[in-house]
Design goal:
The chain is built from 13 helices and ten strands. A six-stranded mixed sheet has the order 1-2-10-7-8-9, with helices on both faces. A four-stranded parallel sheet has the order 5-4-3-6, with helices on both faces.
């Protein structure tokens, strides 16, 4: 990924991520690193052992709490002006959770087609929800309008060092948990991790995870996964700078910003080996496979599993572990029921 020029000087460092981990201690869950065998998937193109980092079990059902809390915790008295964000859903819940932890109420701007489970989840955490438009740009413009009227602080969804540092605690945990698993004899895979797959929406999660893991394990390979209908990072890396997509079309509602961030682009340019895309059908198959492993995973969270099951990425051969980050589990129950019904009809 060497098209164009970027400087590593402004990338988030390991010290920032470790400081975020201290702020998150006792707040964020240390989510499980769960071993699975892809051979359990009928017709899987790439059988092999993989570790799933289960952020679907995080507070709010997604990794977003990590970055949101880290950002909000650093605001100090400025929090009293109010907390505001724009989000497709999971970041809204992360911000709502963080705001509540500091006795504040967040206002979140979400799209009109946001999954009900995410809208209600944000409200259950005490957020005021306003639904506007369909695109990230529309939500951001409304949030900026509200901020100018009220003086509230906007918590950005991905393109900020504090957000990236918070998300980077996922990478810290992966490293620590693999080392603990080896020490306890749970795995014969030696440390360091060899291959780590991370889903990409705006790029905050992969930026932080890559920053942590590449600092700790320089030889680790980081691969991003995007929906084929929203390949903003893949296109940006090919062009050498962030691009804005004309259209997006994917069932993965959490992975469809029309533009990645400048800072997240820089991280991916310097730290990520490549970005692959997965189709909606492959994502759907991954959601159902995860469900059969007793894991409730939303389409956005299943993208990394989809890449492995479909053979777009093969598990690491030889020493070292392969890890797939499951980023969220806020799956609409009616959607899951429909997919299971349709799958049953196909089998019958």
């Amino acid at each position: 990924m060497k098209a164009g020029q970027t400087s590593a000087n402004h990338l988030v460092g390991l010290d920032e991520i470790r400081a975020a981990a201290e702020r998150l201690r006792g707040v964020a869950r240390r989510t499980p690193l769960h071993p699975v065998n892809l051979a359990a998937a009928e017709g899987a193109a790439t059988p092999g052992r993989v570790w799933l980092k289960c952020e679907n079990l995080q507070h709010g059902g997604a990794f977003k709490l990590r970055g949101a809390y880290n950002f909000v915790s650093k605001l100090g008295a400025a929090r009293d002006a109010g907390i505001l964000t724009y989000s497709s859903g999971n970041h809204a819940q992360g911000v709502a959770y963080a705001a509540r932890a500091f006795d504040q109420t967040a206002t979140v701007v979400m799209p009109v087609d946001a999954p009900t489970v995410k809208v209600e989840g944000a409200r259950a955490l005490g957020a005021r929800v306003e639904q506007v438009g369909l695109t990230t740009r529309e939500r951001q413009e409304r949030a900026e309008e509200l901020a100018s009227q009220t003086g509230a602080i906007i918590v950005p969804p991905f393109d900020h060092p504090a957000i990236i540092a918070g998300q980077g605690t996922v990478g810290l945990e992966i490293s620590e948990q693999l080392r603990d698993a080896e020490r306890r004899g749970v795995t014969r895979d030696p440390v360091p991790p060899q291959l780590v797959l991370v889903p990409i929406g705006g790029g905050g999660l992969i930026s932080g995870t890559a920053a942590a893991l590449k600092a700790l394990h320089p030889d680790v390979r980081i691969i991003g996964v995007e929906p084929a209908g929203a390949p903003a990072m893949q296109r940006s890396l090919k062009e050498g700078s962030p691009v804005t997509l004309d259209t997006i079309d994917t069932i993965a509602d959490g992975l469809k910003p029309i533009r990645v961030g400048d800072l997240t682009f820089a991280h991916c340019h310097d730290l990520v080996e490549r970005v692959v895309t997965v189709s909606d059908e492959e994502i759907r198959a991954a959601v159902l496979w995860c469900f059969r492993q007793h894991l409730v995973v939303e389409p956005s969270g299943a993208a990394t599993v989809a890449a492995l099951l479909a053979g777009h990425v093969r598990p690491a051969a030889g020493p070292g572990a392969t890890v797939a980050v499951i980023s969220g589990g806020n799956l609409d129950p009616s959607l899951l029921a429909r997919w299971l019904s349709e799958e049953g009809a196909l089998v019958a």
